[in-house]
Amino acid sequence: MFKSLFFCSGLLCVASLSMAQNNVTNLNEVVVTANKVPQKQLQTGKVLTVISKEILERNVGKSLGELLNQQVGMQVVGSQLTLGANQEVSIRGLSNGYALLLMDGIPLNDPSTIGNYFDLNVISIDQIERIEILKGGQSTLYGSDAVGGVINIIRKKASTKPFSAQANLSGGSYGTWKGALNLSGTLSKNSSYAVAYTKLYSKGISQAANKKDDNLNEKDAFNQDAFRAQFQQKFGANLTTKVFVTNETYRADIDNGAFSDDKDFVANSRSTQIGVGAEYFVGGGKLVANYHYNDLKRSYINDSNYVAPDAYDKYSASNYGAKTNYAELYGSWSLGKNITWLVGAEYRAQKMNQTYLSISDWGPYEDAPLSDALANVNQVSGYTSFNLNNLGGFGAEAGGRYNHHSLYGNNFTYTLNPYYLLGKNLKVLANLYSSFKSPTLYQLYSPYGNTALNPEKSFTQEGGFQLFSNNQQSYFRAVYFNTTINDVIIFQSISTAPYGKYVNFNKQASKGLELDAQAQLGKFNLSATYTHQIGELTTKVAGKDTTYKNLIRRPENAFTLSLGYQASSKLYVSSTLRGVGARKDTYYDNDQFKSINVDLDAYQLLDVYGEYHINSKIKAYADLRNILNTKFVEITGYQTRQFNASIGLSLQF
């Protein structure tokens, strides 16, 4: 399978460099903001993937996790389960928590989770304008957690017309329907607004699989509401301000674990965000100020109306709360024709609380509540970077960050990203990054917490090249990466109460190869990606270092092949084949009362998409996924979606 992929990638590489191009964006025209300073995509040595507005509009039938799962070097484990299932974002084989999610450049975290990661289930794909995925350690610009990379989700901006409306109505398999509405406009020369609301509901399928494979488990429904409003005001030619509010919620029926159906286990989640920002042009440069507040709540209630046969508890209630405050001020100035200087400072404060109550045959049990008066930290950072461009084909970014944490003290990270353009057809890059991940509030303050924890520290090396067609509209890119994380925080069992503690102990390594290419051949557009990754954990056994592979649920090999055809000015069709290699998994068996290691088979999924523009304002589309009805396992004990589809209308006025 993968030999065939290399052959196809080679053909695509040759085609992308030799054929004339049409309707493809020139890479030298794409402006990205992942480095905090707008720059052309061609003028950065960092490994960057842009999911454009056009791609997003052709994937509104998918979830955000499904779309990210198709990108080179990425896996979102759980994205193929029923809506509302837990999703683990992995960049280059690193586990969940090493990928930092950004919203318009602002970090999104949930401090009440063990890994400090944000839940993708609350985010509506209909409200996104563009996504920029920046791989490699990005802590110099974005601080803690940006070890594997950052995913910058850029919300839809206001229309330049006085009033504009976009709507999406769809329905599909598993009793799924969605309605999304985006209203925006420019009220005057200086004022604009954008308001968006999405409603998504699905009757779903059972999260838990059935060992008998008889599909008698109860269906697990999902109900999402996402609202956002933003207002922007200009004051003269130099000052622009904005204020926004976001409220995203969902309710999901869940099950009691692998192969364990439950009829009244419910998860609720809410994220309420408020933010203000300003841009001020001064002295030939620009100052940017942002403040962001996020109030998060999660609950998991397992009622006593139905008790699963293998359940330990008759009733349980887990409640989590978290609050984050983020403030930043940075400025950028041009120092001559070829150098841009960025300097900034930021403040982060996080706190969490949690309670747990259960009732079993042995009576009630209640964990000692964790209060946010105890479980809180803050960090203060200063950072700077210099960008050099067009120095006879040479360019580079060099920068550093000094970070002060309220518990462990100080740490420093740096980045060096040189590249060289050889004419119009070749870019060579070599990147060095150091990054860090601060201990999470749960690791510090839970009953198993350890306030003496140090940050996890990483070092990443990248080397590669990118070939372009003569007009720089098609490309082939190959990148080798190698990341090592020291002082990895693990849960270590101990012989006395509470019988476990978080400690800095292991070393994690991830290395591999990424290939991706795209080309336009007349009315056909092609793209291909291939990821090879190896994860290795080094730990001490009997006083000696022992290294073993540890990619759990993540494949060593994965690929995506996509072919699109513009049949006419109104009709577009495409197909995508995604292959995922064999994987390792482990799950807890309630019948045997122990963890079981299993091997998961490789699988391939074929999707087909089509859209037809009825007129300039109305588009009909159909998104058919897993059309071969392939049965596969993503997480042991949980069901994946087989053939499923959605059809809909997109309207724009």
Model description:
The chain is mostly beta strands and 653 residues long. The protein has one domain: Maltoporin, Chain A. Helices cover 6% and strands 58% of the residues. The protein contains five helices and 35 strands. The chain has a 22-stranded antiparallel beta barrel. A five-stranded mixed beta sheet has the order 3-8-9-6-7. Strand 1 (31-32) and strand 2 (39-40) form a beta hairpin. The longest helix has 17 residues, at 2-18. It starts with a helix and ends with a strand. The model is unreliable at 4-9 and 14-24 (pLDDT under 50).
Features:
653 residues; mainly beta; Maltoporin, Chain A; 22-stranded antiparallel beta barrel; 5-stranded mixed β-sheet; 35 strands; 6% helix
How many extended strands?
A: 35
Name the structural class. Answer: mainly beta
CATH class: Mainly Beta
CATH architecture: Beta Barrel
Given as residue ranges, the uncertain stretches (5+ residues, pLDDT < 50) are 4-9, 14-24
Write the CATH fold name: Maltoporin, Chain A
Helical content stands at under 10%
Q: What number of structural domains do the residues give?
A: 1
Share of residues in strands: over 45%
For the termini, the CA-CA separation is 46 Å
Query: How many strands, which pairing sense, and closed or not: the largest β-sheet?
Result: 22 strands, antiparallel, barrel
Radius of gyration: 25 Å
Average residue pLDDT: 92
Shape: globular
